[in-house]
Amino acid sequence: MRKNFGAESSVYPMPVFIVAAYDENGKPNCMNAAWGGIYEDKQIMVCLSHGHKTTKNIKESKAFTVSIADARHVVEADYVGVVSGNKEPDKMEKARLTTVESEFVNAPIINEFPMTIECKLLKFNEDGICIGEIVNISADESVLGEDGLIDPEKLQAITFDPVHNAYLKLGEKVGNAFSDGKTLK
Amino acid sequence: MRKNFGAESSVYPMPVFIVAAYDENGKPNCMNAAWGGIYEDKQIMVCLSHGHKTTKNIKESKAFTVSIADARHVVEADYVGVVSGNKEPDKMEKARLTTVESEFVNAPIINEFPMTIECKLLKFNEDGICIGEIVNISADESVLGEDGLIDPEKLQAITFDPVHNAYLKLGEKVGNAFSDGKTLK
Question: Looking at the predicted structure, is the pLDDT value of residue A183 above 60?
């Protein structure tokens, strides 16, 4: 038997994207966004409400980064989703987050988060959704496997549970993709 | 030290959305999509290439469902992402998937997947991205907790690892959202 829950904005998994941009004085700010994902090839989308300081910053600076929140920084990730940069000018310091400028775009990389998607603003689309062109992905060496690639077990990315307002870690591997249907035969 | 990987369509987590719709004869089909997420309040987006049978079906039937792929059905979820309904008319049967019609929209619910987002097609937007209005979310009673809500530990949703072409399970809770920054003080 199935139970109906009505119309909700809930899927699994939902990301915990930490979206960061510079303001007009080059001061970094960031926020937590769960509504987003890959939009098209090498493009990312994030739904950002109009009133956010980060929204304004992206419109002006034409660039942003998306950090993948990780289990080591759940508290920091949650803090930047709850406290507004419009009200707390020292939001980054209060969140204990530090930044360096991306080599590729005019946006801050948050040092504490181990994986960052560096984006040029393509546009806010017809629905006001922020669309970025992914220019580079960078990751701290501490989360790379022996193959030199990002290792999800080391990355410890988190996901938002919209039903319980909680954060979950990504867990173990359960299968291979692109197995060409062979396993079904 | 950070390593640069260039422009890639990779984030963590990426969903494993099983997108299903009826064709012009009421025959269900489905496909696996990793590019998508919540778009706006009660709206979901999925990037579906033009050539997919499911894309054509959604354009005609004006509705679709998104099933959340789970660890019990990794093989089925992967199969429907590899094999095209344009080439395999019995794709659903081959995938061992059965359906019932949604009570709310003109689209099939796949019985085997425990959580389903039932959508009316809002539009294919200016970039050709499929946008659905979430009309209902339903879940099998077997994945509900004692509170009557979806329990992620029972749901066992999976996520796509684009770096290793693998599927990972969602893991344990690591924190609470909306803690109002209190934990930082």
Answer: no
